[in-house]
Write a structure and sequence with these properties.
Elements (H helix, E strand, L loop, with lengths): L1 E6 L2 H20 L5 E6 L10 H6 L7 E2 L7 H19 L3 E5 L3 H12 L3 E5 L11 H12 L2 E4 L2 H9 L7 E3 L3 H14 L3 H4 L7 E4 L4 H4 L2 H14 L4 E5 L2 H9 L11 E4 L4 H9 L3 E4 L3 H9 L3 E3 L8 H4 L3 E3 L4 H12 L16 H12 L1
Parallel strand pairs: 1-2, 1-4, 2-3, 4-5, 5-6, 6-7, 8-9, 8-11, 9-10, 11-12, 12-13
Helix pairs in contact: 1-7, 1-16, 3-4, 4-5, 7-12
The protein binds uridine-diphosphate-N-acetylglucosamine.
């Protein structure tokens, strides 16, 4: 069986790493070997958004790098399609495996299905029901054309069934990102990032912010920063800043309001240091998708600066609370957490570190 594994942007790498480990393990013990080619589209290209993850997560260097880079949605999607199609024609894989919901995910799937090659989508079925999020379009369309839909939670199965996806294509396998989290936890616990940043355990909030809906509009970004400066009077904030957000802060001339001594601005971090910062934080404030899941598993309170989430299970059974654009609620929730009144969490079934192995078993048994 020959696979092409596609990755392109930061949140993809932690989903590809466990898959490669599971393929290697399979090949050591089973005669039916899996051949794979790793393609990096180059949607993310900065060292701190890309190469550092390959190093830390011990992902082999990509076999093929497409070097797509930044651009509008159509440019990025179109360029990946054009370049990826050439790879497909050369390599003739049996299945293309895509992960998550970034532009590279959709572009690779679309090029693949038009050549009548099967697509396997890992993290299928998640829905925010907000079509203004580019990721929601990527999710809907990728799922509509995939042959294997590997879901992280049962709400995803329900979404897919509602959209008319046949049951035999849907496989509830759990959350592959959690495989990676468990695998790297011992290393993360040894990270020296706390000393490096002069932080005390449980004494800071960790912040990430990069959604276009939060950072691409000047007024919205300004109001978020103003609230965060207020929050920093209550608790120190550590803010590894995404390049999109950084550029917008500069372009909108908002540096002058981001001046609190209690906000520690740093460059984006690698996986291991970032995980350590989550584990030791009092709480996390974010608009990311994956971090809602990681905090749920680690039992760390997560306050999400969005109106919707495609990961409702992190609210139902996890530690996640949707804050939207409501400064009063943010401050109230932080006060609750600081008084020791954070919600306790159970993490979902099948978030057990074995998702990648289940996926490989399913693919091998059907091909
Ligand atoms: C992308 C994904 C988003 C994911 C995020 C994680 C889509 C539609 N969005 O958003 O789902 O949560 O990755 O980071 O696929 N840039 C750099 N260096 C890089 C890459 C980007 O400086 O290596 C800057 C560029 O100015 C670029 C901007 O960031 O224009 C946005 O990059 P892009 O890949 O379009 O989307 P993200 O915001 O990173």
């Amino acid at each position: 069986m020959k696979l092409i594994l596609v990755s392109g942007a930061r949140p993809n790498f932690m989903k590809i790493a466990p898959l490669i480990r599971a393929i290697k393990k399979h090949n050591e013990t089973d005669n039916k070997k899996i051949e794979y080619i790793l393609v990096h589209t180059g949607q993310h290209y900065d060292y701190k958004l890309s190469e550092i993850f390959f190093k830390e997560l011990e992902i082999p260097p990509p076999d093929i790098y497409l070097g797509i880079g930044s651009g509008t949605h159509a440019e990025q999607t179109g360029k990946v399609m054009i370049e990826f199609e050439k790879i497909l024609l050369n390599e003739k894989p049996d299945i293309v495996v895509v992960v998550g919901d970034v532009n590279s995910t959709l572009a690779a799937s679309l090029a693949t299905v038009k050549l009548h090659i099967k697509v396997a989508h890992i993290e299928a079925g998640l829905r925010s029901f907000d079509k203004k999020m580019p990721e929601e379009i990527n999710r809907l369309l990728t799922d509509a054309i995939s042959d294997y839909l590997f879901t992280p939670s049962l709400d995803a199965n329900e979404n897919l069934s509602r959209e008319g996806i046949p049951q035999e294509k849907i496989f509830y396998v759990g959350d592959i990102m959690i495989d990676n989290l468990f695998f790297n936890l011992p290393k993360a616990k040894n990270s020296k990032i706390l000393e490096k940043l002069n932080l005390i355990k449980q004494n800071y909030a960790l912040l990430t912010l990069h959604r276009p809906s939060n950072v691409d509009d000047k007024d919205k970004l300004e109001s978020i920063i103003e609230v965060l400066v207020r929050v920093s009077n209550k608790i120190k904030i550590v803010f590894p800043i995404h390049p999109r957000t950084h550029k917008n802060i500069i372009n909108f001339g908002l540096n002058h309001i981001l001046t609190s001594d209690n906000i520690i601005l740093i460059e984006p971090l690698g996986y291991i240091d970032f995980l350590n910062l989550i584990i030791n934080s009092k709480l996390v404030i974010t608009d990311s998708g994956g971090i809602q899941e990681e905090t749920t598993v680690l039992g760390i309170p997560c306050l999400t600066l969005r109106d919707t989430t495609e990961r409702p299970i992190t609210i139902e059974t996890g530690t996640n609370t949707l804050i939207g654009n409501n400064p009063k609620k943010l401050i109230e929730e932080i006060e609750k957490i600081m008084k020791g009144k954070a919600r306790k969490a159970n993490y979902p079934e099948l978030w057990d570190g074995k998702t990648a192995e289940r996926i490989i078993q399913i693919l091998i048994s059907r091909n």
